[in-house]
Amino acid sequence: xxxxxxxxxxxxxxxxxxxxxxxxxxxxxxxxxxxxxxxxxxxxxxxxxxxxxxxxxxxxxxxxxxxxxxxxxxxxxxxxxxxxxxxxxxxxxxxxxxxxxxxxxxxxxxxxxxxxxxxxxxxxxxxxxxxxxxxxxxxxxxxxxxxxxxxxxxxxxxxxxxxxxxxxxxxxxxxxxxxxxxxxxxxxxxxxxxxxxxxxxxxxxxxxxxxxxxxxxxxxxxxxxxxxxxxxxxxxxxxxxxxxxxxxxxxxxx
Amino acid sequence: xxxxxxxxxxxxxxxxxxxxxxxxxxxxxxxxxxxxxxxxxxxxxxxxxxxxxxxxxxxxxxxxxxxxxxxxxxxxxxxxxxxxxxxxxxxxxxxxxxxxxxxxxxxxxxxxxxxxxxxxxxxxxxxxxxxxxxxxxxxxxxxxxxxxxxxxxxxxxxxxxxxxxxxxxxxxxxxxxxxxxxxxxxxxxxxxxxxxxxxxxxxxxxxxxxxxxxxxxxxxxxxxxxxxxxxxxxxxxxxxxxxxxxxxxxxxxxxxxxxxxxxxxxxxxxxxxxxxxx
Lengths: 254, 278
Description:
The complex is a heterodimer. Chain A is mostly helical. Chain A has a domain at 62-219: MetI-like fold. Chain A contains ten helices and no strands. Chain A is globular. Chain A starts with 5 loop residues before the first helix and ends with a helix. Chain B has a domain at 6-84 and 160-266: Rossmann fold, CATH 3.40.50. Helices cover 35% and strands 23% of the residues of chain B. Chain B is built from seven helices and ten strands. In chain B, 45% of the residues are buried. Classes of the chains: A mainly alpha, B alpha/beta. The interface between A and B is medium-sized, with 19 and 23 residues.
């Protein structure tokens, strides 16, 4: 979705200028306004530490831990959510019962149950995988139910009139018709999985990017901590861009 | 072209939605019988909600009637018969996630046509409806009239002896309807297919049909059948002929009272009134 018009370019320019302004304010605050370096490090120092982290490869272990947890959690949520959502969508009764129930659960902050997950699965990656999978299961399931339930009856009737079998119907009608809604759910599921995994790493863990940031904060190493935060933001942006691109490519309705 | 052999036999078909006493209970069809000869084009015309579309779905095996039976080509109908019957629906029954050519090929996939034949037959069908250049377009990129041509091509590619068309031009403007009607007449005259065509338009019915079956208001049943007796393909100047006007006026007379009844039934003045010629 590259900006095409002059207006779009102008908006993009304002966005970049805004971010540049924030960094400039940050710089001025630490150099001229005397904000305590222990609370807010100089952006130049942060940049220096970021380069150092990238050069030495100190981030690799933590990144692999977090990405591994994310991959496992998201795979479980996708497999479970798509299957559950599809099976529920096949029955009007099950949809009526479970759709509001899951929507209700989705609305509560499941992260509150993190202590329970840690008791069950320990401080290691397993508890992050479990909570990430649980939290991202709901948007995926809900969008799968919505996607399959929302298929226009006319498409099904037309396919049946031409002799479509159940397998034909699923593969060539139900699945493509439901896909745009399901893809949106998958993107949302991915986002909440990433958020909850990094978030729970900061609360109770033995490794991962969230854990690293908290460890640095506790030892008051502000510049490297900010460097890691910038690194996580960059990783999250890249992942989000990849997922959004995949979503856009799979959609026929735009 | 029209033979004496019966292609579609409808015997005593009644259909109701819901159960007696329920809020949504509707008696859509009442003891309707009908015989359509092989190669004939029969139009069903009647007030909104009179059960025309229900009858079409019953013939096509998409709806099981509450009572009565249907025979198609000598066989009792118990479900969709994709090798005998193809449908053209009112609008937007093309799959929006497939291109025009993919839509047509998919229909043949469903029907069981071997892969090697699909592409050739799809191209032929598209050429027949004048859409050869739009094979790679998505339905959303086409006008309403072109979408209906594509839907017709999908039905033609299935090479069924029977075509059931449910207000295929219902959502189109008058000019597009007229052109499509003329082209359809030429196309179908060559095909020798048996066709049942549901329409709201008196002009469309007279222009296309060998016979026009007029439905009564709900519960619908056939009130009268009028023969048009004019060779296919119909010439465009048939519309301005004396004969056309007489037939159209007669249909108008038959329908007028039924439409009043249907409007009263609906409790609102929103039921459509027959439109102008074609």
